[in-house]
Each structure stands twice: as C-alpha cells, then as structure tokens.
C-alpha cells in the first residue's frame, strides 16, 4: 500500500502551493491591483519543475530507507532531510528563480540568502499517510517566507558613496 499521493497530484499541488505562496507574500505588501503575475508564474514554475517531483521522490525514498515512526528512525529522517533535502530545495528555489529572471549571476541571490533560509527550516513528526499533505502545507508557509525574503533589499550591500 502506497501512503503517498500520485506524482501527478503532487505536481498539481506544489504548483498551486508555490503560486499561492507568492500571491500571499505579495498581497501582504502590495495591493492586489499591483500584483506581479509574472513573478507568481516564475515561482509556480519552480514548484512545478523541481519541488513537486523532488519532494515526492525524496519522501518516498526516505520512508523506504528508514520505515516507521520510532524515535531513532524519525531522528534519522530529520537529520537526512536537513542535510540533503533542505539545501537542495532552498538552492533550487533561489537559483531557479534567478535563472528564470535572467540574472547576470544566478548564484548571487543564493549566496546572499541561502544560510539565513536554511537556518529557518525544520521538519515535524508526521505519519507517512499525512506526510506529503503536511509537507505541502508547510511548503506553502515556507515558500511565502522565501518569496518575501527574496524580495527584500539586502541592506548589507555596499552602497556607492554620495558626493
């Protein structure tokens, strides 16, 4: 018995979650009339192309490697998730959006914001039957944070001297 939804359902779900996260993030600071729909489309595309399939296969593989919910196995899942999946998904988000925006240096935003984002992420204890939906919900909140954080100007950058 496969406790995970289909890969197709996951792709639709993550695409919707990523688009929703960006719209939530934008609506907090921008009137609806000024929403940047192309930004939302880019965020949704990153969710569609990478996050949906990666998370689907990652969570299935993690459950196969460490089946069950005992403290030792859950701890192993958390450690592996934090060491492998978290860096991969955060990196795909920042680098993917920079590539879609044709940034001159697609790694610049990642270099500036990866560690702060990585330190903010965590994993919760959820049974396999609810894990994909739970992670999807957390992903919505997490992606709102990433979208908002990415839009922030970096105040630590050196500003040109004024004459």
TrEMBL record:
Pfam families: Mpv17_PMP22
Keyword tags: Membrane, Transmembrane, Transmembrane helix
Organism (species): Salmo trutta (Brown trout)
Any GO BP annotation: mitochondrial ribosome assembly
InterPro entries from the UniProt entry: Mpv17_PMP22
Highest taxon listed in the record's lineage: Eukaryota
Recorded GO CC terms: membrane; mitochondrion
UniProt-annotated location(s): Membrane
Protein name: Si:ch211-120k19.1
Membrane topology: Multi-pass membrane protein
Family, similarity comment: Belongs to the peroxisomal membrane protein PXMP2/4 family.
Primary location group: membrane
Transmembrane segments: 79-100, 129-149
Keyword Membrane among record annotations: yes
Keyword Metal-binding: no
């Amino acid at each position: 018995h496969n406790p995970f939804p289909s890969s197709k359902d996951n792709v639709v779900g993550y695409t919707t979650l990523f688009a929703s996260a960006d719209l939530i993030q934008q609506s907090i600071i921008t009137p609806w009339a000024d929403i940047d729909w192309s930004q939302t489309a880019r965020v949704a595309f990153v969710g569609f192309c990478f996050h949906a399939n990666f998370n689907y296969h990652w969570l299935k593989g993690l459950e196969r490697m460490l089946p069950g919910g005992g403290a030792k196995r859950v701890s192993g899942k958390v450690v592996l998730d934090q060491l492998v999946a978290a860096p991969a998904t955060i990196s795909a988000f920042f680098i993917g959006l920079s590539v879609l925006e044709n940034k001159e240096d697609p790694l610049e935003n990642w270099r500036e914001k990866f560690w702060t984002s990585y330190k903010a992420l965590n994993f919760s204890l959820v049974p396999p039957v609810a894990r994909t939906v739970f992670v999807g919900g957390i992903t919505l909140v997490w992606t709102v944070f990433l979208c908002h954080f990415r839009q922030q100007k970096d105040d630590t950058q050196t500003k040109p001297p004024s004459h």
